[in-house]
Amino acid sequence: MKKVYFLFCVHNHQPVGNFIHVMEEAFQKAYHPFIQTLQKYPFMKISIHYSGVLWDFFKERHPEFLKVLKELVKKGQLEMITGGYYEPILAVIPDEDKIGQILLLSQTIETEMGVKPRGMWLAERVWEPHLPRYLRKAEVDYITIDDYHFKKSGLREEELHGYYVTEENGEVVKVFPGSERLRYLIPFHPPEETLDYLQRLKGTSQAAIFADDGEKFGIWPYTYHSVYEEGWLERFFQMIGENLDWIEPLPLGAYLQIQKPLGRVYLSCSSYREMDEWSLPTEAMMAYGKVLQKLKECPEGEEIRRFLKGGFWRNFFAKYPESNDLHKRVVSLSKKVGRKKLPSLKREAIQRYLYRAQCNDAYWHGVFGGLYLPHLRHSLYENLIQAENLYDQEFHKNEIWIEIERGDLNGDEEEEFLVKTPQMIFLFNRRGGTLSEMDWRAKAFNILNTLTRRKEGYHQRVLEERKESREGRVRTIHEIFDSKEEDLDRYLHFDHYRRVSFLDHFIPSSVVFESFRKGQWMDEGEFIEVPYEIEIQREGKSRALLFSRMGHLFHHGEKYPVEIKKRFLLHPSSPVLKATYKISSTHGDRIETRFGIEFNINLLAGETADRYFEIPGHPLEDRRLSSIGETKGVTKIYLIDGWTGFKVFLGVDRACTLWRFPVETVSLSESGFERVFQGSCLLFLWPLNLKEKEEFEIGIEFGIHPLEGGSSG
Fold this sequence. Notes:
It is built from 20 helices and 25 strands.
């Protein structure tokens, strides 16, 4: 009797920078019990992937687990497959890094398990047609992606029960189409439904291919209870065991040895279906979701959906400029390292930091927090800065130096200025004359890593559920998604500009603090996110960047010409940035409004006692970085980070009114809706009373100092 081949592939990964207690929970609730259960059923032969983050975790904290894995590999029950070590999106990192990341994980597997992997897990199944030539250079023979990729290339469901070959310039790779249907069945439906699926292939010698995340076996909400406490996985394996007369579980590599490819295929740029939806701009994503819903209700819907595709993973760089900036910084440094002659050990150390900074999770957002989780973004910056530290130490030994790189550094057709000194790294933008990155090298910390509050497609669900609740319906948001706190709609505020620093505002006197905090106001000026003119000046060992813009102020129906000049002075041996503002007008009439300079600073925790504000001369009842308040007569403010061991200070030479509030987002994670602290917004506000030939001047100091006694964490 012909057997149905059941190919079971499990992918396990945790992001770079994830909390150790989260990883330990994943080990105790998913990785360890899964293998314990597998050990009981020696006929279950599967393919498994652990990212390098987990290999590092196992080696440090659970070496006994590696011994168990090695024994299962020896028995032929586990096939180890490789991937990019730190789970990068391979298509968007430099070519040498593609190969280097894969080889690093393959070498680790060979060292630890005694086998050389030939198969690979493609991170987030992000496929682009140029990949085969680099996979082959990394000695990869086959990968598994989704049947969705194949359907977008014209193949039908019944043609996807095996593997195909594809190639780029003659470099051939075998590709397995993981079943979307099985992804949704396992482990969320009774095992019998998976058996029903397999029975449709009975007597055909075809393959049923499951390839999905191992975290769904214990870490995804409610799965530990269903998979282990209620015994879903035990029952599933038992069910397979009871039907071995017609089901044969096999690893992917073993299947290749006994079956020929189904044919040749060329796949378009794609990921799994949900990712293609998430990568769309918000409005398009919402419209796309409505189209999919209509298709579900249409008799021909499934056939139409087969030819319907969403977005493209790289669109996340357009959707989230914060992601794009970080990506371009990492790519740029990687290319510099590739061009320079470096000692081998130094090169390896720099590359390892850069590889970590390429971990995919914090570059995008879908149903998981990803980009919205500040500690993940921080970790990528931390590794980038560590790589930059090693690189610059090699080429600036025992020097007092300052380096300015000028050009379109992030692909937006505007100039940026990357300024580096032995202590600091700054990224200035011609657009808006702003500062979007300020790194203190000593702690590898970008203090400006703030995420803008943007509308996401799922926010409509929050509003709709809240509206229905107010109308007296018993139904709550918990019927659709869990929520970590009630009334989250109160925090749905969206920004009409990016949350960076040195943003120049002209704020009408009618705008109150709450309106500004909620983004419900209009700027009288035209200086936000528009290009400034730039001049680089020398001043001894220091350098100065002079930003200037002649624009207009629209005030009480009149249009006033206004010029802003702001000069940033950077000294190579100081962690302090000094800025001088000069505002003038050529209009004959007097202008009366308010001028504000906005800063957005993220020290990662808004509610903890070891991170707080200090405003000299103004005792605060609530000092937390998430606190809200208006304080008059301010000339200096400190943001204390007692955990990391430093303080950020901002000082002005003209007393101002200070508005402060947390930048908070409402985002969707695997456990539901949650409010996330993205940083502290500080607005320094002055009355502006300006006439022709008069100048309004402000001096600012913005810097970082270590705390006395170092870190308290």
